[in-house]
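User: For documentation purposes, I need each entry recorded in a consistent format: the amino acid sequence on its own, followed directly by the corresponding structure tokens. There are two entries in this batch. Please keep commentary to a minimum and don't merge the entries.

Assistant: Recorded as requested. Entry 1:
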Amino acid sequence: MSFLLTRLPPFAADYSGVASALHDLGGLVVIHDASGCTGSYTGYDEPRWFAGRASVFCSGLRELDAIMGNDQKLLDNILRTTRERDYGFVAVVASPVPMLVGFDVDGFASLVEHETGLPALGFATTGFGLYDRGLSAAFLAVAKRFVAEPEAPPAGASLLGASPLDDIGPPTLETLRRVLDRAGLPLVSVWGQESGLAAIEGAAGAAVNLVVAASALPLARFMKRRWGIPFVTGLPLDADGEAGLAAALAAAASGDRSPAERTPARGTGPAGGADHRTVVLIGEQIRMTALRAALRRRQDGSTIRVASFFAWDESLAEPGDCRLADEDRAAGWLASADADLVAGDPLLAALLPDPARARFVALPHRAVSARLDHPAGGRCMADPVGAVRAALDDMPGRTGR
């Protein structure tokens, strides 16, 4: 009951994270469920589902099959599907009912591989974990199974964690390509969308990795241990952010490891003053950390804290930042923060202790509100720095605090 939600909707689940990470890789993704979990992923979590091509197969699990352990039915359906179309691999993704009845995901994946002759991956997702865990698990599984040993000197860069579930879409990818061009680094692969297995297989040949979401940090650290690839974390939200990130990537790729494994150009900004305010940014950790850095570069003297329900890395956190464990503790932390301005997904406004007390800036996060709060071309989506800065400029100074 520690993650009971009474004011917020369920966030995107771990099985959605796995399926999303594998979406563009040309495999058959089998979600073992009674169709509800598959429907949540295809209908709400995955923005590419209605416009792109991907094979997500629902097992159609029924009560009798679960009770009797009738795995042959699922195996027969997978065999028939793989005979009808060419796939690069098969992924078996579990859901709550298979978890409760003790379904052996890894054992079944081995059986699928033996029967189909295709590489098969098993994911023991439960539906109780969040999407970031699914992304991390899928990224690591793909790296360990498909990335080939490099045959040439390292060159270029890969983007790790570019998931649509974290609202990394075509405009952000275009900006990231511009950053790589500025750093003189050709793009090797994108982990999260666009790249197929051929590009992923060559990812070990990159000279540096750019981590754009905290869910990809386990992958970045694995690739550093395995192939010695340094990494930089960050997301460019303004022109100065692009320049700083490009410089950090170029330095890391050339052998200067000092900028790696951190977000460049954090900035500090002046503190205190009559107009001092407390700002809380809630969302994906690397995105919110980049937003904080961009606000500080504009010489804002506010105290800015970052918080997240999702993947969290202490190396990116500052004193006062918070990993939000559950809804109740998040509401308590927000009350103690006594923020003047809170920015995050619109549904998170329900956690504010006094909505009239704090200004709220809506920064939609697909893993939280799915399709509810994603209007095309919305200002907060396109320019979160400008949206928060405008809200701060519009607030009267607070004195005597």
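Entry 2:
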Amino acid sequence: MIRVVPAVALAVGLAAASVAAAHAARGEEGLGRFEHQRITWKGCALGPGDETGTELDKAGARCADVTVPLDYAAPGGRTVTIAVSRLAATDRAHRIGTMIVNGGGPGPAIDMPPYIKALMGKAGARYDLVGMDPRSTGRSVPVDCGWPSGHWVRSAGTTRASFERGVAFARDLAARCAARHADVLPHISTRNAARDMDVIRAALGERRVSYNGASYGTYLGAVYAQMFPGRLDRVVLDSAVDPDKWSPRLLHGTEGANERALAHWADWAARRDSAYHLGRSRAAVLATVRRVIEASARTPLRVGPYRADDTITPVVLFNLLQNDQDGPRAELASAVTGMARAARGEHVPATGPLGDTLAFLLTGAESRYGSAQTALLCGDAAAPRDPQVYWRDVRKARRVHPFFGGIGANINPCAFWPTAPRERPTKVATTLPSIVVGATGDTRTVYPASQALHRLLKGSRMVTLRGADVHAPYQAGYGDACVNAQVNGYLATGRRPARDVVCG
């Protein structure tokens, strides 16, 4: 049983009740000024160094800031702005409507419309494609806690001392967020992001909108469907989150899928031993990986200016294990080769995927990304507060999953988060004619999670990509013709498959 400090559990219950009552009391009229606001579209680039804005401008997109309440329980109080982009339909004669897109993370999404349009084939020209940075991310109420890392994910390592370093790291990250953003953290949540999305729908003058979301974006879409029934048209949910398991411990349960994907990659690398020198069999390659982690536990590996210990080296594997195509597999093989050389005491420069991953994990260059993501996770659901809960789970998980058990079960900043969630997690169970896409070897939102969301959404159809170790097979541009045909055909015609589909 997960233990939660009683005072925190009580705070969650009381806050949820008061917020729910406030929302019921305010009525729809409290949001009228937001829903009927005039959206002023403008260029997207914020300056000469804004690559995202420049690319959007080149694609013909326009950007705007939509005003919303910081606290939906008090819509007359402080307001904030949510950043959106729009790429207008070019086939106006056959325009279907507006589609909001989200690529997961949680992270920014204003950059996505041009990319999604390219994936959609002929259907892309028939939609106004809208990207929204969910609150706390990108340009929307940005949360940047000044972290010394781009992310909160760490492995528990190989020893209790390694785990305790992770506890101190998570505590420090939470403290930094408390010091910088105490005023907005209580209002960062997926339910509020869904409310923002509905204000945007209304301000755009749309009775219904379509939606295309992947990974975390499937959870946002499902929460929106539950909170605002009847306001969605055509919906694609790619590599779904199981709403009943959404929590700060979202990686707990992914260990087995990652272990299998690593074994499949080891087979691939063994067939290319002349290039990577990692071993000529699956067992030999995995033994090399194990030696790398063990060496990093004794002495942190030196890679350029970085030092990677046993809390970091497994995360490098995890970070690069999202796609089973040759290119991504070669990037992982290159990274493992570099770490193996460092373990032998050789000079290894911080270049390529290994250098990029270590820069992400060991510098504050991407602090905003990890800070924003954590604010949403911790704002949605409470986490156990006792480090001993995590240590117990880590020891149990490592016995079955030696490479990734220390990641999935490990502690994170939500254990020390300064604010409790103001509302209970959304219970999703609704009717939503839609397509749910899932790959059987997904290493992030594992395939059973997609199946679970499919069961919770009456009227949905499941499109399964069998035998692929890939996350978000549609939005990631995996290129499976069967998956793309099912999704794009549905987006063009509105007709779901007559039954669930399996793509080989």
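Summary note for entry 2:
Confidence is low (pLDDT under 50) at residues 1-28.
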